[in-house]
Amino acid sequence: MRFDETYSGNVFIKSYPNYEDSQAVLYGMPMDWTVSYRPGSRFGPTRIREVSIGLEEYSPYLDRELEEIKYFDAGDIPLPFGNAERSLLLIEQFVDKVLADGKFPFGIGGEHLVSWPVIKSMFKKFPDLAVIHMDAHTDLREDYEGEPLSHSTPIRKAAELIGPNNIFSFGIRSGMKEEFQWANEVGLSIAKFEVLEPLKKVLPKLTGRPVYVTIDIDVLDPAHAPGTGTVDCGGITTKELLAAIHEIAHSNINVVGADLVEVAPIYDHSEQTANTASKLIREMILGWVK
């Protein structure tokens, strides 16, 4: 991946043309090699960029414009199709470089397993890292049908690396009974069904700490985000998710990186999900990149 010129494909609206002077780096992780239900999220980063042209650059929520933030769209990391282990290594190396250059990494998935190598990289630079995780699913399995590299395992892997007491999950409404039991036993915080109100209680505990935020689009109810691989009814609204993003923006935590994953355009016939994702990314960039 080159950093000395703008990505030649579609770029997210108002992206800055120069890597060296950028504050943040937007990058795609087009991988869906391990999904257990419907594939297609590898096409998410490209479609989210394409529909971002319909966004206004101004956020009435935050009273900021994208031109106020120098973020460079580096395009998609070229990942070897079907090779999960190699793909994860390339993602980790990419984020290592972004962090070494003092920039805010913002990833677009891809399946949720792509967050695992990013968290590994973040933990190398921030040993007191905490993770805020918004999702329909616990993602706490040790393996899926005997395979440890699965989109159902990244939060378990992250918890074993940085400590389960440093993981805070919100909006969870699906998972194996054993996953919930394990979380309870080791002190991993799970807020079931809701995001905003439990998030408000957790944020003061994270004041001043470096925090990585990972959002699976399926934390939203399928009525709001049908274009995802593993839909799960009973989710939150887009209004609540936007409010949660802004709550983080106005808090005293230090967001040091973020991702949004699991948008699968093939199931998004009205493009509702991709458009929602692009707006969420705009708000996260404007709210979290200081």
Automatic annotation (TrEMBL):
Keywords: Hydrolase, Manganese, Metal-binding, Polyamine biosynthesis, Putrescine biosynthesis, Spermidine biosynthesis. Its cofactor is Mn(2+). Pathway: Amine and polyamine biosynthesis; putrescine biosynthesis via agmatine pathway; putrescine from agmatine: step 1/1. It comes from the Bacteria. Its EC number is 3.5.3.11. It catalyses: agmatine + H2O = urea + putrescine. The keyword Nucleotide-binding does not apply. Coiled coil: none annotated. One of its GO terms (molecular function) is metal ion binding. GO terms for biological process: putrescine biosynthetic process from arginine, via agmatine; spermidine biosynthetic process. It holds the Pfam family Arginase. Binds 2 manganese ions per subunit. Catalyzes the formation of putrescine from agmatine. Belongs to the arginase family. Agmatinase subfamily. This is Agmatinase. It comes from Bacillus aquiflavi. The gene is speB.
